Amino acid sequence: MKEDRFANNISEVARRSAAVPKRLDIDLSIALTDQPYHISGNLFYIFSAPDESSYLDIKVNETREPVISYSVHTGLVTPFDALYITTPAGQSGTMVLIYGTEAPNLLQIIDNKSTTVAGVGGILDELRGDLTEETWGTEITVGNAAAVQILAANAARKACIIQAKAANTGIVYIGFDNTVTTTKWIAELQAGMSFAVDDYRGDLYARADAAGQLVGYGEW
Prior knowledge:
Strands 9, 10, 12, 15 and 17 form a five-stranded antiparallel sheet that branches. A four-stranded antiparallel sheet has the order 1-8-3-6, with no helix packed on it. Strands 2-7-4-5 form a four-stranded antiparallel sheet, with no helix packed on it. The protein is elongated. The chain is mainly beta and 220 residues long. The chain contains three helices and 17 strands.
């Protein structure tokens, strides 16, 4: 019985282009709202995207239908004769949507990446670090009269470092805000010492126990 079904399936695909997936490339840099794509099938799937945060908003068959957001490795098995696609502003790159008919009887997508890669893109970026720095500049003078901001909060930061200049004669104290003092601090830097962190993206301030102390800084 299974052999007969297989033979029938082969005969069917030999007569027509059945169960062969088609490809639709969506340019995410072009903001669209309910752009109609008059394609038909009973399966569509986001096969690839620039990153895991990229997405499309799709309505199936009618613009009055509810919108559903789709990111990489997501899709839908349902009959459709049109997709209304919205590409939210602020994205870039190309998203590849594949679609086809005869699913799941003759067409099934095998994508093992969805079980091994999804969710680790951000971790990989964190481990590799950036190719260019986020912030660095001329040494900053820190005194004992008031706290000085060394680094502002930065959501893109992966790591940062602050170092007291070797020629300093006093101690530099590092804190999370401008209330840092010589008795309220997270790091105490004598001349030449440094403070580094790779899991904090907020403000960092410094204050010294003497005037004219210098610190270098950077983040990436």
